[in-house]
Amino acid sequence: MFKGNFINNLPKIYGTYTGGFIVFIILMAIGEQAGMSAKVIGICFVAFTVLIYALIGYLSRTIQVDAYYLAGRQVPTVFNGMATAADWMSGASFVAMAGGIYFKGYGYMALLVGWTGGYVLVASLLAPYLRKFGCYTVPDFIGTRYGGNLARLSAVIVLTVASFTYVTAQINATGTIASVALDIPFNIAVYVGLASILMCSMLGGMRAVTWTQVAQYIVLIIAYLIPVFWISNKMGAGVFPHLMLADEVARIAELEAQFGLGSVKNSAADLKQVPKGLSGITKAHAEVNTTPWKFISLAVCMMAGTASLPHVMMRYFTTPSVKAARRSVGWSLFFIFLLYSSAPMLATLSKLSLMDPNLATGIIGKSISEVQAIDWYQNWNQANLMFVSDFNGNGTLELNEFFMGGKAVVLATPEIAGLPYVISGLVAAGGMAAAMSTADGLVLAISNALSHDIYYKMINPKAETAKRLLIARILLVLIGFAGATIAALEIQGILGSVIWAFDFAMSGLFFPLVLGVWWKRANAQGAVAGMLGGLAAGTAYLIAVRSGYPGFLDITQLTFGIVGSVVSLVLMVVVSLATKAPDAATQKMVDEVRVPSGKAILGRQH
Amino acid sequence: MSKQAQHWEKTRGLLFVTLAIWFVFSIGIFLFGAEMEASSIKPFGYPLSYYMTCQGSLGIFVILIFWFAGRQEKIDEEFGFSEREDD
Predict the structure, then answer these.
(1) A89 and A111 Cβ atoms separated by less than 8 Å
(2) ipTM, 2 decimals?
């Protein structure tokens, strides 16, 4: 099935796969009716989907260099779009984003704009040109365009810092979901997650990751959309929630006023009782609650970061042509849009379910003892994701007395809204798919840079194919283990470290990549100064802010990429102009990159 | 001017138009968050500020990329720089 006409058969293969997955969901639903326990359903969902990914990974094994690094450059536009969407949407998008919107409202939604707007930059500034270049990795482009091992090495350093920050968060997310669904301790579940990730990528590199990511996209989008549509219909809010929740948004504002949002504050002593990581609703749902600059600076960092993250960029190296790379960016964003435009709707439905006394599911205004007796409250309270306490002693649950973890908005809402447990199992499988697909892309980006750019290009250019691929696989496993070990320490939250990764990538890579195509005069000295200087400046600002420095211009630890990238741009321009212009061969190479026709700069095998 | 230089000039022109539209919907309108909130324009009944952050700008970006790709393909064809099918 994976031979010969595989590419032409793709729609049929994934159509069958989607059908099979839906049949599996129905079987589970029947099982639930027949008395299967919630725990068994959860295990079935996670185990079944992970086994399918592993099978795809095994079937896509390869011993060819261009298949391992570029999936043979034959991934069709739409499928590459799905794979990129899965690569892109991590555990943070799937599990944490709706929660962030739920608690922080408008100010947080800058991330939605940033994480989509960045694709316009990818499509117009970079992806088609890097595809024409024909590189295997992002440092491969930097190293060839600017020339010299120092430039290549600097790019590998920035790539590793950004991607590694990101990957620990994703392995952490797979561990969290595996530990809940399979009911095993977190520090073991992390390695179960890691094993699943490696099974998808080790044997087939980019080729295996591509085809598992398409499969993972299908699972995660089904798992995200079914609950949104179901809850909306069940609540009577509208058959098509995205266009029909205006009344619900208005109703939330009404209830916020009625329950005294903002006017009733909790004392510090009361808040001490609340378990760590849980928060109450303190911000209005739809109001503009931040300054334009705070909103825009966060959005800008996420956009420039998107255009510099190597694991996303390298997905566009796998399309058959430059034209396909361009269109593929459009498809990627379309598939991402399906989930991102649903997250605010899920947050709205979730909040209304809990707040509205007219709904059977509403808990605000009920007596505390009544709420404490609800099944789902007990479950999620045990999982440390929900908490109520009668601060004012009136026996009734007030809005300021209810606390929830950010993850619970996605994970617990189906249960709160009274959907069958099979949906919760589906959501767990979706979260696992989202975190795994991103982790795979990241681990591969790092290990490919190390094996291709450091080992093959700098240490041993005469290495044979078999040896190169062996080194690539060993590095993949080592990086995976390093990531899992750090993830097991649980030193940082998922969302925070994801945002940092964008800032790191933006600090070091955004201008060196963009100017490499759009400014012929940019040279190696300038690029090295830009990459290392930008990364150093961004990192220094982050460390300073974390250790108490108040910062300037309202630039926080979430937007330090602004500092890094401005330093990077200035250094790159000044140093480039102060040193010799690139030679004629390099200038000619840039000219060739700028037109789609003709041969790639770097051949299929290099 | 060589064919290649003309091609690049048009490509750059398209880039500026694309980035201008991108700028308006990713940065420009969010300078006026409060004004959008107070606006009487309410797409599907949502406050305009809320709508743009959760759907409006996102959808415009999707359309913008496909539009950009189509225009760029036309420019490539015009100057004979399109890829051959067997490339």
Answers:
(1) no
(2) 0.93
